[in-house]
What we know:
CATH class of the domain at 253-344: Mainly Beta
Helix content: 40-55%
Largest sheet: 6 strands, antiparallel
Amino acid sequence: MKNRLLFGLALIGVLAGVGSAIFYSLPKHAQPPVFNPAANPFPSGSNVDIFAEVSAPVLAIPAKEGEGVTKGTPLVILDDSVQRAATAQLEEQARAAGVLLEELKAQPRPETLRVAEAQLAAAEAAHKTTRDQYEKQKRSFDLDPGSVSREALDSALNAERTAQANVELAARQYELVKAGAWDYDIRTQERQHEALLKSAEAARALLAKYVIRAPVDGVVLAVNTAVGSYASPLGTFATYTQSNGSIVVMGAPQENLQVRVYVDEILVNRIPPDGPFRAEMAVRGTDVRIPLQFVRRQPYLTPKIQLSNQRQERVDVRVLPLIFRFGNAGKARLYPGQLVDVFIEAKPR
């Protein structure tokens, strides 16, 4: 009896374990939200996040938050001392290569040509002297073979032939100097000069990146760095969030703001399909109502991620973005990034 009881308890435990494993392995579906969370009408995609293209400490920040700027206005200035020195070095190398190219094209140098002429004249004079000595000894030997030894006559002949060879060498050297630089040397130097010019141009272009400028006309919404901070293409490090972010955030001109509205997928069919439709924006904390002008819709439903700005959200809702424009907000004080409520006139069911 006791064994049967133990066997029964063991069987119950096995079944309970298998059942628990099956239960906990089933996918958990997210619970529907109690209420629809408010959507951020100004996500980061509506603004311009500006990052540095080079890495360097921040030297100065001419931009002021809330200031309207035009395209090309300096926003942040980085320390460019190292890059400026490298650029100057490449520019000097390009100038040196250009001077050497001019030198090759200017050949022959007059002073070098006169030296070659003088060497040729000296070789011709030495040849004439040796030839005269040989002819004198040859005539004496022809008149009286005993007057000049055969060895002296042969030495005079060899000296005359050596002097003649020196004349030919000096003549060829003169022609070489007179011809100037070789065409291949000139073309090689031209390519080196062009390569150094391109290197200097690239260095100057990189040097310009140390001044971060406004890419468009707009308003400086946020400056997320300070003088002395280190900026890089990854952004600047924020001690509060312990992460990297954009250095400057810019937005559209304040006189004509836009609002982005997210419509839940279950309400998409109630949006009028064609033509403009009426919409109104309510500013939270006030009784202000602002009429909106429809701009466009983004025909792609996306997951709603406004709660934590993460793709994996415990809210299983997809939304359709709509873009509206509004002008003067009247007494309401609005800022980009502010949450508002929007009411859209829906078509009848």
